[in-house]
Amino acid sequence: MRDINIFCFGFGKVAKNFIKKLKLENFNINLSTTSRDITKQHKIDDIAYNSYQFNDKRFDANLIEKLKKSDHILISIPPVNGVDIVIKNFSKIIKISNPKWITYLSATSVYGNYNGEWVNEESKTNPTSSNGIGRAESEKNWLSLFKNEKLPIQIFRLSGIYSNQNNILLRLKSGNINIINKKDHFFSRVHVEDIANVLFKSLSNFKAGEIYNISDDKPSSSKEITLYGVKILNLEKPETIEVKDIESEMLKNFYKDSKKVSNKKMKNFFEYKLKFPTYVEGLNYIRNNLI
CATH assignment of 2-164+188-217+260-276? Predict the structure, then answer.
């Protein structure tokens, strides 16, 4: 059984699925995480761990010793008001902790709008949203730590994440969804299990200073995916609305950007075959096994 001493800044669906993958692969896991809430002990898959308080206002100083002893560090906390609070508070500690592996989870929002054209890791970043602007700045700061301090850092740019617990089929069944009418609007997505699997692959195949897009093979429109969900669930088609009639500011921002995200670098470097190469396999698996 292999040992791993891992510190997760943030413990959302990607980090949780990564820990579950490590458990499946028979790792002996020494886990510490952070949360905005007060420090507590938790369990995941019979793994006891401390979740230390950390937000933009304060942190539990007890986490410092755990961080110093960690050989693997996963960062999934987004910037707060444009500031990477992990770098702000802990870059000096991370420098002296001598980790083997640091992964910063960014997002493909850093590319901005490409009017439906393909982007890859060499494409210029020109984010249009505050989230994308903050992510792009964080990437620069993490890469500076790689260059200046020789820290083993890789960056994963994640496409839109869906999971067995959060997906279009459940939203369709709840009736809380519309079809958005915007011609030639493309975005990429990826199932959370594929992210966890690539993270796992990177434990044994790691190159510091690299950026990888993590996405599936089939960029599509929201309308296409919604209509496919309607078809396999045999439901009535939801109401169609125009982009200008969207009430959610976050959703409006989503429709500002249109791009197809290439995953070729990810698949080639990690020699990874996607479990869910498109939304078709992913949604059919969810329908057949979970709904």
Answer: 3.40.50.720
* Residues 138, 57, 100, 50, CA torsion sign: negative
Helix axes 279-290, 222-233, angle to 10 degrees: 30
User: How far apart are alpha carbons 265 and 127 in whole angstroms?
Assistant: 21
In tens, the pLDDT along 241-264 reads 988 888 888 888 889 999 999 999
CA 135, 137, 138, 139 torsion-angle sign? positive
pLDDT band at 278 (very low <50, low <70, confident <90, very high): very high
The DSSP annotation for 243-283 comes to GGG---HHHHHHTT---EE--HHHHHHHT---SSSSHHHHH
Domain limits, the chain: 2-164+188-217+260-276
| Separation of first and last alpha carbons in the chain | 35
The answer on pLDDT for 228 being more than 70 is yes
Tell me the C-alpha to C-alpha distance, in Å, between residue 152 and each of 76, 114, 217: 16, 31, 28
Contact 241, 181 (CB under 8 A): yes
Q: 66 is written with which tokens?
A: 């755990």
Please, how many CA atoms are within 13 Å of residue 269, restricted to the half-sphere of its CB?
22
Check whether 290 has a pLDDT greater than 80: no
Residue 191: Cβ within 10 Å count: 26
Element at 6 (helix H, strand E): strand 2-9
